[in-house]
Amino acid sequence: MAPRYVHLAIILSTLPALFCTAATSPSVPGNDNEFIRTSCGVTRYPELCYSTLSPYAADVGNSFPQLVNAALRVTLDGAVSTCSAVRSLARAAPRRMKGSELAAGAVSDCVGNMKDSVDQLKDSMAAMKGLDHGPDFAMELGNMQTWVSAALTDEDTCVDGLEGSAMNKKVRDEIRRRVVRVAQLTSNSLALINRL
What is the annotated signal peptide range for this record (predicted)? Predict the structure, then answer.
C-alpha cells in the first residue's frame, strides 16, 4: 500500500471512534433533554411538557427543582399571554356577540378567572424561589400545590363558562383553545410539583 494511502487509512479508521466518543460524552446537550423527557413522563401531557421545557435544558441540567421553576415560568407566561388575549376579545365582545349579555358575561368571567390564575401562579413562583428542605418545606410545598390547583380550577371554570354560551363560535373556540393549553401547562406543573 502506498504511504499516502496508509495515512488516509489510519485517519479514516479513527473517525468512527471519534464520533462514538462525542455521541456518548456526558457533556452532550441531549443528556439534559433526556432528563427533561424522563421527568415529563409523570405528567398528563408529556409531549407538551417536553416541547415547552426542552429549550430550558441548559438552565435545568439534571436539577428537578430547576425543572419545576422552568415549568412554572412557562405556565405563568402562557397564563399572562392568554389573559391579555381574552381581555382583548372581551373588549371586542359586544360587537361580535350580537348584543348577548350572557355571552359578554361569560367572557368577562373568563377574564376574571385568568387574572386569578395569573396571581396564583405568581404566588407559586415566589414560593418556589424560597423553597428549601428546612422545617417549613412541607407547608411551603403544600401552599404551592394549593395555588397551582386553584389556578387549574380557575382555568377549567373559564372553559366551562364558555360552553353553551350564545357567543360567536369563532371567538369561543379561540378563547377555549388558548385557555385549554394553559390548563394543560398548569396540570403539568402541578404533576412536577407533586414529585418535589
Answer: 1-22
What residue ranges do the domains of the chain occupy?
Answer: 31-193
- Per-residue pLDDT of the chain in tens (196 residues, 90 and over written 9): 444 433 333 333 333 333 332 222 223 344 679 999 999 999 999 999 999 999 999 999 999 999 999 999 999 999 999 999 988 877 765 555 554 566 677 888 899 999 999 999 999 999 998 887 778 889 999 999 999 999 999 999 999 988 876 677 888 888 999 999 999 999 999 999 999 8
How does 180-194 read in b/e, with b if 16+ C-beta sit within 10 Å?
ebbbbbbbbbbbbbe
Number of residues assigned to the chain: 196
Q: Tell me: domain 31-193, CATH 3.30.530.20, correct?
A: no
Q: What is the largest CA-CA distance in the chain?
A: 90
Among residues 132, 118, 138, 31, which one has the least CA distance to residue 77?
A: 118
Report the predicted TM-score, pTM, of the whole model to 2 decimal places: 0.79
